[in-house]
Structures are given as structure tokens and as C-alpha cells.
Amino acid sequence: MGIRHGDTVKVMAGRSKGKTGKVLGVDPAKGRVTVERVNIIKKHTRANPSKNVRGGILDKEGPIHVSNVMLVCPGCGKHTRAGHATLPDGTKARVCRRCNQTFEN
Ligand SMILES: [Zn+2]
Questions:
Q1: Does position 103 have pLDDT exceeding 90, yes or no?
Q2: Predicted TM-score (pTM) above 0.85
Q3: What does DSSP say about strands 40-45 and 8-11: parallel, antiparallel, or unpaired?
Q4: Ligand 1 centre distance from Cα of residue 98 (Å)
């Protein structure tokens, strides 16, 4: 998948369409990503004192399918597709197809 932990993505489809947030987690096996403040679900948790977890209903981000999100470029601020480039030092990087800005990491 072209999306990694820490990337900023925009939701293009689904219930959270139009929202932008940071990727909190990726699940390559399921093709899903968890995005900050997107697809908030109510998670019912049981108290677990040994782990210092309080029981109750918790607001938590739910995973959404990668096909519903697009990368947001740190250079031009637009949603974009990432291309791949090899940098002068030989490392591979993802680049913005609009402005050629490389994505960090
Ligand atoms: Zn760009």
C-alpha cells in the first residue's frame, strides 16, 4: 500500500468523506488504515485494573479502507497520488505527482 503510518491523508469516500487526518495505523493484510479523528466508533471496554483500563464507552477511531483515502502532499497540500523516485543517494522515496515534493520517511 502507498500509505504509511504518520502520513496525512484525505478521506475521499464514505461516511467521513472530506476529512483530513494523520494515519495512526495501517493493516496491510486487510487493506485498511486508521486515521486520526476519522470514523469515530464507540468502543465498549471492560475495566481491567491491572492494565489501568477503565471500563465504559470509549470514542475511538475505526479502520477504513485504503481505497477511500488519498495521500495529502506536505509540499502543495493537495491530495495526490504518490510516485516513486530514486534519490541521488540511492534511496527510494515517494514523491508527489503534482509538485515532486518527496514525502518524508
Ligand atoms: Zn505536492
A1: no
A2: no
A3: unpaired
A4: 5
